[in-house]
Amino acid sequence: MRRLVNIRPGPGSRVFLGAAPLALAALAYLVASAARHAENPSDKLLPPLSAMGAAWRRMAMEVDPITGAVPLVADTLASLARLGLGLGISTGATLVLGLVLGLLPIVRATLGPMVAAIAVIPPIAVLPVLFIALGLGETSKVALIVLGITPFMVRDLASQVSAIPEEQRVKAQTLGASTWQIALRLALPQAMPKLLKGLRLSLGPAWVFLIAAEAIASDVGLGYRIFLVRRYLAMDVILPYVAWISLLAVMMDVTLAWISRRFFPWDHAKGAE
Length: 273
Prior knowledge:
Layout: H1 11-39, H2 49-61, H3 71-103, H4 105-119, H5 127-134, H6 138-162, H7 166-174, H8 179-216, H9 222-229, H10 235-263
């Protein structure tokens, strides 16, 4: 008897199975939109594809006479700059702190509780504090991303490093390796793919924190634009912007996955995970 847990779809089947829910969701939207507009042609909740296409062309191709820039391009560049800087700072801090906490028990006993305490603080709750302390500029927005994802990434990487088999550390020390050499030649190669995995998992929360900060205090950005037009119930702008954010997030995730497979293929070998 063939069990469900033993059924593994092939490449073609995976593409079909992955696309089927998206196609069903799109079909359900089209049906619901057509039904609502048949009842009320001026309905704004579920705009038709033609309205969203017109709004997308306006936002992506026409220059705003007030700002002198194409709204979608300006919003995307501003948001990606903030997100990239926040992710870069978080990744660098995670690599250093994760290695130190994972390798050195004395440091883990000293800083571990503080990292755990910071990790349970809701980042959105301290956003007003960041605005007061750092102002309404770019610094507070980047700081929210860093504060929101770094503690979790540090805890995850530290646990991965501390889980390195003790036999490997003993062998390295037997061969005369110093603490610095153990960190660079033993722990670092094993930590890098784990760091990329943690970064991929943190992309979603990072986008949430970015959009929240832009919605409250910003004059450009994807989150700013969504919350600006919501007062007009402009779903024909909001939905394409949400789809664009999702596409950007997927592209970033795919890029990180490719980097991990390209530079750390041994971590993706069958049975490695």
